[in-house]
């Protein structure tokens, strides 16, 4: 995290699944290994390599993704496709150069709603 950034909310890695594109139960996901960080400038996903009482908290140096709020096209909060009611999916469409990309984050209800509120407040409309 850059010195000028302020961390607004972080959650994970447990209970968090991240996939490229729209979320799907049978799509390739990074599950229970990704920490989501929302700052006042961007949202990023950091891979947690080790955790727990004996593993410490080591992270991969480069984030899985880092999306500046200025590049976000749309954000949507959707019910999880498994319909268990414990999780929701935060879908983010963003610009990278001339292309648009999509990333989906499945998380427990409270962190997903809080992340969506932060994105609504900081991302352009």
Structure commentary:
The structure is a single chain. With 125 residues, the protein is mainly beta. The protein has a single domain (7-122), classed as PH-domain like (Roll). The protein is 11% helix and 48% strand. The chain has one helix at residues 109-122; strands spanning 7-11, 17-20, 30-31, 34-39, 42-50, 58-59, 65-68, 72-79, 87-96, 99-108. The strands form 2 sheets. Strands 1, 4, 5, 6 and 7 form a 5-stranded antiparallel β-sheet that branches. Strands 3-2-10-9-8 form a 5-stranded antiparallel β-sheet, with helices on one face. The longest helix has 14 residues, at 109-122. The radius of gyration is 14 Å and the shape is globular. The two termini are 25 Å apart. The mean pLDDT is 87.
Write the layout of secondary structure elements.
Blueprint (H helix, E strand, L loop, with lengths): L6 E5 L5 E4 L9 E2 L2 E6 L2 E9 L7 E2 L5 E4 L3 E8 L7 E10 L2 E10 H14 L3
Antiparallel strand pairs: 1-4, 2-3, 2-10, 4-5, 5-6, 5-7, 8-9, 9-10
Structural key phrases:
about 120 residues, 1 helix, about 10% helix, 5-stranded antiparallel sheet, PH-domain like, mainly beta
Task: Predict the CATH topology.
Answer: PH-domain like
Over all CA atoms, what is the radius of gyration? 14 Å
CATH architecture field: Roll
Class per helix and strand makeup:
mainly beta
Give the class-level CATH name: Mainly Beta
**Secondary structure: number of strands:** 10
The share of residues in extended strands comes to over 45%
Give the termini distance in whole angstroms. 25 Å
Question: Looking at this structure, what is the CATH superfamily?
Answer: Pleckstrin-homology domain (PH domain)/Phosphotyrosine-binding domain (PTB)
Helical residues, percent: 10-25%
**Residue windows where pLDDT falls under 50 for at least 5 positions:** none
Helix-strand pattern: EEEEEEEEEEH
Count of runs of 4 or more consecutive helical residues = 1
- Give the overall pLDDT as a whole number: 87
Shape assignment:
globular
Number of domains: 1
Sheet of most strands = 5 strands, antiparallel
